[in-house]
Amino acid sequence: ASGDRPSLETSSSVVTGELFLPRKSVIPGEVFEGRMVLDLDPGWHITADRSEDSIPLDVQLDGGAGIAAIDFLRPRTQRLTLAGMSREVYSGRVEFPLWGVIGQDAPDRPIEVRLAATVQACDSSKCLLPAEIVLSGEVPVATP
Known about the structure:
Elements: E1 7-10, E2 15-20, E3 31-40, E4 45-47, E5 58-63, E6 67-72, E7 78-82, E8 85-91, E9 93-102, E10 111-119, E11 121-122, E12 128-129, E13 131-139
Parallel strand pairs: 1-12
Antiparallel strand pairs: 2-3, 3-9, 4-8, 4-11, 5-10, 6-9, 7-8, 10-13
């Protein structure tokens, strides 16, 4: 059956993202807060669990010289039957609160933060090929 094979379209055709970071300067060593938002086209969902034919959402810090640490809170998932399988998924507009720490040796200029989110989108009949959504923004740094 053709229903269990991913189409050639990648998940980036139905998922977009945005990164919201603080606008006011952050002192090195202080925690800053932000959020990552993923928007899905209607009817599409991002898989959250690992199964034979799906890749769960993964977020990595791709670049941020001067960022000592970054972490984020995963929102709750829901269980749906998609493409013939029961899956844990994120749907609609998904917000991930995040926080990070500027390193003590941070440069005296805004730090570019890049997050790479690996996503796989599925709808009721098929899953698209996984895609990497790269989100970037800047954190202004204050000199202590």
